[in-house]
Amino acid sequence: MDVRADEASDPLDRSVTRLGQRIRALRHAAGLTLVQLAAATDLSHSFLSQVERGRARLSMSSLFRVATTLGTTQQILLAEATAPPAGSTPVLRRTDDASASAGGGTVRALAPAGERPFDPLEYTGTSRDLGPYWAHDEDEFAYVVEGRVLLDLDGSLDQVAAGDSAFYRGGTRHRWASADGGPYRLLVVKQRLAPDAG
């Protein structure tokens, strides 16, 4: 999805621009060209160029591939795109958010970059399509803030509603969608694993 921007007037466009700038910085630090990053992520280099300039938004699955190639996670990249100005309070304002498209909805970081043992995210959407499974090493907690969600954990389907929650261990295949086509809002807290000492 292309996001044309008057960056001065739209906070969402500012977050897309910051995310693109962070991806470019990490790509340069890794010594990769756009063509090499494109080949490693199965995305076109022209699309990645648009992303780096803040003129296109990555889906969560594409952001996952880019983050993995650059040695980080999509959650950390989203959080880094919310970085508040130096000397500001630790409060993250709604207008500071960084988001990506995910399964017919959006996901946004709920905390700026920083050292912590977890990453909080908000998923919103209306799509009834469960889409592909996600699986990762980190444990995860999900809480339904509003709406009704169809939650699939390793093939076990449950309908969960506002106030319901689920915890699942790393390695659990998971996905979710709107249970009834109405809007939902899901708070997801993902464990952040310590980097390998390697």
Automatic annotation (TrEMBL):
Membrane-traversing stretches: none
Keyword Protein transport belongs to the record: no
HTH cro/C1-type domain residues: 23-77
GO molecular function: DNA binding; DNA-binding transcription factor activity
InterPro entries recorded: Cro/C1-type_HTH, Cupin_2, Lambda_DNA-bd_dom_sf, RmlC-like_jellyroll, RmlC_Cupin_sf, TransReg_Diox_bact_type
Pfam families: Cupin_2 (PF07883), HTH_31 (PF13560)
A cellular component term, taken from the record's GO annotations: cytosol
Alphabetized UniProt keyword annotations: DNA-binding
SUPFAM superfamilies: lambda repressor-like DNA-binding domains (SSF47413), RmlC-like cupins (SSF51182)
Record-linked PANTHER family: HTH-TYPE TRANSCRIPTIONAL REGULATOR, METHYLPHOSPHONATE SYNTHASE
Protein name: Transcriptional regulator, XRE family with cupin sensor
